[in-house]
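Please decode residue identities from the backbone states below.
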């Protein structure tokens, strides 16, 4: 089963400095049919104006993965972590028992990110933060784990959940397969280009909620960049 969620159907919020699209209920956007997908709770498609950002605010009991699509995001938290994550790279914050952080776009251009929240397998624990570069050339034509709590994903940023976040870039005409399997939920968003996911056509910004599909096959109609989340149901 694949449910196509066109970009135009997503929740939206415009705050002047922030233009956000919500794949799932978030803030003032409420849709009972889009509360979560497996352990995936939030997928926000954010455009942050230059010189603006999110002031210090708290989180707890959530794995928060940020994939930077354009520009860069600068992080600072009450644990003393500071870092700048730029386009194509990923940062992970395990909120654990509680963390206060800020995220700013200190660049001269708008920054575009996917921010993904996944429920952890258990509550509490020491909070943590980390970031890592993931060159797009390394995921050309294949899925690569960017963040994961699953065995064997040693090159991925660690998260405290039975889940993985994967990225792939495909040239027009290329395809890539991912084995999802029974008891798993997948959610795929096309960051750029066009593609078919098990025959369902997607354009840039569209989402695909996937369940009861043993293999997910992505076939690029144009050069495409995509992110896929695999979680327990």
């Amino acid at each position: 089963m694949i449910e196509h969620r066109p970009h135009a159907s997503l929740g939206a919020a415009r705050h002047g400095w922030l233009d956000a699209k919500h794949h799932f209920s978030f803030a003032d956007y409420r849709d009972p049919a889009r509360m979560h997908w497996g352990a995936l709770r939030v997928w926000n498609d954010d455009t942050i104006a230059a010189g603006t950002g999110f002031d210090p605010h708290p989180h707890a009991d959530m794995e928060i993965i940020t994939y930077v699509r354009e520009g860069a995001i600068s992080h600072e938290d009450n644990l003393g972590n500071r870092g700048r994550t730029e386009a194509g790279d990923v940062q992970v914050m395990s909120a654990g028992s509680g963390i206060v952080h800020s995220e700013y776009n200190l660049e001269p251009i708008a920054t575009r990110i996917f921010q993904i929240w996944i429920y952890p397998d258990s509550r509490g624990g020491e909070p943590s933060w980390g970031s890592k570069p993931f060159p797009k050339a390394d995921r050309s034509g294949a899925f690569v784990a960017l963040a994961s709590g699953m065995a064997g994903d040693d090159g991925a940023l660690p998260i405290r959940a039975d889940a993985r976040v994967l990225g792939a870039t495909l040239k027009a005409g290329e395809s890539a397969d991912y084995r999802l399997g029974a008891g798993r939920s997948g959610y795929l968003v096309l960051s750029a280009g066009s593609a078919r996911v098990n025959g369902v056509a997607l354009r840039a910004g569209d989402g695909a909620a996937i369940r009861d599909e043993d293999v997910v096959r992505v076939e690029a109609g144009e050069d495409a960049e995509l992110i896929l989340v695999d979680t327990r149901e």
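Observation: DSSP finds no helices and 22 strands in the chain.
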